[in-house]
Amino acid sequence: MVSNPESSPSDADPVDNARRYPRVTSFRFRRGALTAGQQRNWANLWPTMGRDLRVDGQSEPPLDAATWFGRQAPTILEIGSGTGISTAAMAADEPELDVVAVEVYQPGLAQLLGLVDRGGLTNVRLIRGDAMVVLNELIEPSSLTGIRVFFPDPWPKARHHKRRLLQQGTIELMADRLKPGGVLHIATDHADYAEWITEVLDNQDTTKTHVVALGDVSRAPISLERPTTKFEGRAQREGRDVTEYVFTRAEATSAAANGAES
Ligand SMILES: C[S@@+](CC[C@H](N)C(=O)[O-])C[C@H]1O[C@@H](n2cnc3c(N)ncnc32)[C@H](O)[C@@H]1O
């Protein structure tokens, strides 16, 4: 159990009914200038490979992955792709899958554009904006084959726990967006966040679509092989363990199907 009495995984702000997603702002506003190379990538590649979320607060048109990628293929959403090291390496290993990377940090996205370009990858697209909006407004229920969340910001202070990306409402939303059999793959190097995530996963409302540990990970429909990123390398050097979760969508229990209150 998470021992901090000030906050718990169920402390998330209430669901915003107008938008229907938990109001979690899990990212920091980070300024970062693009290098000259990144500016070139942005100018040349973003118009076709990237999409910005609207800034006027209007609802977003749904993601039409088949048109954007020019093919029908299983789709993976990576939340908080950072500089895209994992995104590009895993996409190169899985050319049969399409990967949508969501990140708010423009220099990270620009770096990923460069990796995609240099690697000749055709199966990566990028979205700049809040993954919560993406999950809620752009992604249809039961549409994703995988969701990846690698090293989410741990928000270590108790008063910031409500900003953690992974909490009850957001996990529920992720479960809903996965296809049956789809996989939620999480990694963290933060021991307290790992405990928190375990607690969230253990305490899901099973009368709603939820996720359960994937018993036989060799049956995962997506690769689980991650390269070692900057974050993981630092964790290893500093002696911190990485905790990894591989979960899969499970349907609501019969209590819900029978009309029980949830
Ligand atoms: C600690 S970094 C990890 C980056 C990368 N996954 C890695 O393993 O190297 C977490 C990243 O998640 C991004 N992030 C956090 N919340 C987000 C959100 N709601 N939508 C999009 N990106 C988010 C942050 O901007 C940050 O770049």
Automatic annotation (TrEMBL):
<dbReference type="InterPro" id="IPR055361">
    <property type="entry name" value="tRNA_methyltr_TrmB_bact"/>
</dbReference>
<keyword id="KW-0808">Transferase</keyword>
<feature type="binding site">
    <location>
        <position position="130"/>
    </location>
    <ligand>
        <name>S-adenosyl-L-methionine</name>
    </ligand>
</feature>
<comment type="function">
    <text>Catalyzes the formation of N(7)-methylguanine at position 46 (m7G46) in tRNA.</text>
</comment>
<comment type="similarity">
    <text>Belongs to the class I-like SAM-binding methyltransferase superfamily. TrmB family.</text>
</comment>
<dbReference type="InterPro" id="IPR003358">
    <property type="entry name" value="tRNA_(Gua-N-7)_MeTrfase_Trmb"/>
</dbReference>
<dbReference type="InterPro" id="IPR029063">
    <property type="entry name" value="SAM-dependent_MTases_sf"/>
</dbReference>
<dbReference type="GO" id="GO:0008176">
    <property type="term" value="F:tRNA (guanine(46)-N7)-methyltransferase activity"/>
</dbReference>
<keyword id="KW-0489">Methyltransferase</keyword>
<keyword id="KW-0819">tRNA processing</keyword>
<protein>
    <recommendedName>
        <fullName>tRNA (guanine-N(7)-)-methyltransferase</fullName>
        <ecNumber>2.1.1.33</ecNumber>
    </recommendedName>
</protein>
<keyword id="KW-0949">S-adenosyl-L-methionine</keyword>
<dbReference type="GO" id="GO:0043527">
    <property type="term" value="C:tRNA methyltransferase complex"/>
</dbReference>
<comment type="pathway">
    <text>tRNA modification; N(7)-methylguanine-tRNA biosynthesis.</text>
</comment>
<feature type="binding site">
    <location>
        <position position="78"/>
    </location>
    <ligand>
        <name>S-adenosyl-L-methionine</name>
    </ligand>
</feature>
<feature type="binding site">
    <location>
        <position position="103"/>
    </location>
    <ligand>
        <name>S-adenosyl-L-methionine</name>
    </ligand>
</feature>
<feature type="binding site">
    <location>
        <position position="153"/>
    </location>
    <ligand>
        <name>S-adenosyl-L-methionine</name>
    </ligand>
</feature>
<feature type="binding site">
    <location>
        <position position="189"/>
    </location>
    <ligand>
        <name>substrate</name>
    </ligand>
</feature>
<feature type="binding site">
    <location>
        <begin position="229"/>
        <end position="232"/>
    </location>
    <ligand>
        <name>substrate</name>
    </ligand>
</feature>
<dbReference type="Pfam" id="PF02390">
    <property type="entry name" value="Methyltransf_4"/>
</dbReference>
<feature type="binding site">
    <location>
        <position position="157"/>
    </location>
    <ligand>
        <name>substrate</name>
    </ligand>
</feature>
